[in-house]
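Task card 7
Instruction: Convert sequence to structure tokens.
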Amino acid sequence: KNMKKIVVLSGAGVSKESGIETFRSGKEALWNNHQIKDVATPQAFVKDPELVLEFYNERRRLLKNVQPNQAHIDLSSLEDYYKVNVITQNVDDLHERGGSSNVLHIHGELTKAKTNLSPDKIYEIGYDDINIGDLGEDNVQLRPDVVWFGESVSKMSEAERIAKSADILIIVGTSLGVYPAAGLINCVAYDVPIYLVDPNVPEGMIFQDRLTFIQKPATEGVAEVVGELIKKALEE
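Output:
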């Protein structure tokens, strides 16, 4: 039988309960007294590559020691009943470790490295540090394979293509007002049901008939949505 297609759009909120902090606001936007944007730009990497590498090395060490939470795991359980694509803004690997098999990272991945000269050649580094003097095959310094402020999101067209094919959309842990989530919603057909899981009401949210808003943290909210969707699949 023809399985319906679920597209999941996820952001920092889905990993928060695993202990990965979100760097959006206030004092959390500081790292060792540096603004996050000062360690996540191409300019910063030119100016102080050691500082930038250490910021991401620390993220990677943290990632090694955290576990996927119930939201990651529950989302992967949908694959028994639906075709599922996860489009995530997160650079962690918790969706994969939670069991999801089709994950597109539009902002890159902490566990991978590349160089500025040959950005299409990707190196799997796992949870290892990148140090000054670690070079790619092109003899250029390695950097994290993440999209920095000011860099283009090369996977955006693929994300748009996936969003266009959705029969059901689940948005979890990302605010609707923030690009690229906002743009991807516009790719979804107008009659596609949308489930939005967020502990806060997103700014500028328009309550449409097709939108089910679940005002809960990721683990609770995702469990609710997944339960409902599995029940629907079994009824069909």
